[in-house]
Amino acid sequence: MDIDPARRNKKPRLLLETEREKLDEFVDSIHYSARYNDDKFEYRHVQLPKNMLKKIPADYFDSAKGTLKLLWEEEWRALGITQSLGWEHYEVHEPEPHILLFKRPLNYQPPLQQ
Do the record's keywords include Glycosyltransferase (predicted)? Predict the structure, then answer.
């Protein structure tokens, strides 16, 4: 379940302040699932308000699929998604493109800061 680099921007595309302001009204309506896991990863899904997708810049979307690209951490955090460290956006639920799927290794420990 590796991340396909072709489904991401080559490098994080940060939001302009004006773009971020358009998303602020939706942040409190973002829904976070409970965590669930298999033997390697823990998972969660994040449900964005459907109307929020209309305010996200076009270059965050995969034009071939009509869904969001796989987002770098800087990108999903800029959208207003808040999670602890270590989460990686690995898939978009195509039938419901406002649902983003995240994973991180089981028992993830953030690196120690020095």
Answer: no
